[in-house]
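quick one: pyridoxal-5'-phosphate bound model?
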Amino acid sequence: MQIRPFELERYFARHEFSAKYLLGSSDPEAMSIADLLAFESGSEDALKKVWLGYTESLGDPALRRDIATLYESVTPEQILLFTGAEEPIFAFMHAVLEPGDHFVVHFPSYQSHYSVAESRNIEVSYWCGDPAHNWTPDLAELPKLIKHNTRAILICTPHNPTGYLFDRESWNRVIEIARQRGLYLFCDEVYRGSEHNVADRLPQMADHYEKGISLNCLSKNCGLAGLRTGWIATKDRQIYNQLATFKDYLTICNCAPGEYLAGIAVRNIDKIFETQRQRLVRHLDLLAAFFARHETRFSWQRPRAGTVTFPAWLGGSALDLCDRLIAETGIMLIPGTFFDMPGDYLRFGYGRANFADVLERFENWLIKAG
Ligand SMILES: Cc1ncc(COP(=O)(O)O)c(C=O)c1O
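yep, here:
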């Protein structure tokens, strides 16, 4: 079976680098290599000495040690480096799931969470967040979706595109459901660190569930998407080995300068998270005021985490709105269509430094457009 085009990424490929203003991106404000090196003295010289031969396929041992410190009980041997977070999603769907398996996916969702599985004849059921309840999925529904051939559940928290964050009790309940049935639980945690209130931050799946797989990267919580550094953490040795073996057919190993720079980010992650978090909260306040001024145009509830939010657009086709917006103003916003979400939704990203300016431009256009 052929894999479906990744609609969101195709739209980005078309517009991201020609649009004048980005109002729908999930990666927050990035930084330069110089900004990153400024965190540690002597790092500039050290970067120049990075050897450009192949790197270790499991990931640089020093980087794996640094990453393991971000977990409660995961060890460096339980960390496997990948290029971004996209690669381990692809690897999991190929190396762990088999055609004929059934897989439950939190929805709406980043498309690779389900399209890769579907391309392999893996049956997917969708566990849907409820837009009327700020995208909370119904816990009572989850066990009903599980079948005799279910192998795994995937959740994403904090969530793209809705910003939904599980509360601790619901998160525990998902683990309980998976554990009772012996299912793998793949937890996409790439937005972890962007909780608007730090006290809401959840633990990481790999620390709390023996068949849990925590997915993370530096793209969304740190704004370092260009480093292309992602990883999985899992205590399940079999899964770990299957993923490591599959990686040999993908990128083999990570990029050496990227691994060095990723180490600096990981060692300084709390400071980076805090800078991003403060910006997100400031921008979300602007967005809340914007939605209050336009209650007849949007239906919105404030998310508790993440860099993106997913209001309903009450003015007709979200896709038409985005196409007109980019053609007339150069502002790129994302229609919910690209998340396969029925109805008309828009993804706003509010982590970029020029957010206030772009939101104002969007508002002026919206008022003129009627
Ligand atoms: C939920 C989620 N997982 C994974 C990824 C892929 O991340 P990366 O760009 O680091 O490969 C994204 C990117 O948008 C995402 O939103």
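The two ends are 44 Å apart (CA to CA).
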